[in-house]
Amino acid sequence: MKLRFLGTSHGLPEANRRMSCTMIEAGGNIYFIDMGIMVIDDLRTMGRKISDVKAVFITHMHNDHTDGLIPFTALASWYFTDVSVDIFLPKTDGVDAIRNWHRANDVTLREDGVRFAKYENGPVFDDGIIKVEAFPTPHTGSSHGFIVTCEGKKILFSGDMNSARTDFPDSIHTEHYDVVVCENAHVEPQQCEDGFAGCDFGLLVFNHYTDNKVGRLMALESKLGIPVKIARDYTEVDL
After folding, report:
1. CB-based contacts of 196: which residues, under 8 Å, 6+ apart?
2. Residue 148 in contact with residue 27, Cβ under 8 Å?
3. Average pLDDT of the chain?
4. Where are the alpha helices (DSSP H) in 22-161?
5. Which of 5, 31, 34, 186 is 20 to 30 Å apart from 148, CA to CA?
6. In this predicted model, what pLDDT tens digit does every residue of 179-225 receive, in sequence order?
7. Confidence band (pLDDT; 50, 70, 90) for 75?
């Protein structure tokens, strides 16, 4: 299994850093956590089939996490017609807007191959390769983080954090997580030091951060005794 951080900036694009998008590769398939960028550009550059994309999981409905959905679903509707993908949203009131936008651009959403679904807290997806569970976060009225289990590994994606003390399930204090991916735009590193004290993480990855926090985030490695990585666009983590 591999994580590729294709977009790691906060709410505004930084130089060489795009909007939020993390790619999971496992079992020959591709899955995305958030899609703030035009992912087909990257997949074509990588030489990957667009039909390898099996599911997309959106943590919350903010533009920097969702803006790639329109170009992806458009091309999956009129050109890459072998795509069969499930797109999981915390709320689906924007789906008609996507359909209408496509219609305005002479594209009809291919409903059989591009499927939208609203998820709830708890189990979201299990295809025998990855299992995804959602937990609520306070960032918006309908925001979530995800726990992904795959190949015997457990990965937690925080979504946009409001607080490292309260935004996580109790299991982060009682269970081992191989990787914890934290979106840090709205949280000070001191909160992470307090909130993650005593946690059993194999690796703590920060993305969706502002550059002025990088030094303080890296200092958490010695303070917490947990390996820390600062994700930039195209950073990879092999598990």
Report:
1. 164, 172, 180, 204, 220, 224, 226
2. no
3. 96
4. 39-46, 63-66, 69-78, 95-104
5. 186
6. 999 999 999 999 999 999 999 999 999 999 999 999 999 999 999 99
7. very high
The owner of tokens 């209408």 is 100
How many whole angstroms separate alpha carbon 64 and alpha carbon 214?
A: 20
Q: What mean pLDDT comes out for the span 113-118? A: 98
Round to whole Å and give the CA distance between 111 and 99.
10
- Ranges of beta strands (E only) in the chain are 2-7, 21-26, 29-33, 53-57, 85-89, 114-118, 122-126, 130-137, 143-150, 153-160, 176-177, 179-183, 200-201, 204-207, 228-230, 235-238
What tens digit of pLDDT does each residue of 94-105 get? 999 999 999 999
Block residue for tokens 């790639």: 68
Nearest to 68 by CA among 40, 95, 93: 40
Classify the C-alpha dihedral 42-57-68-113 as positive or negative.
Answer: positive
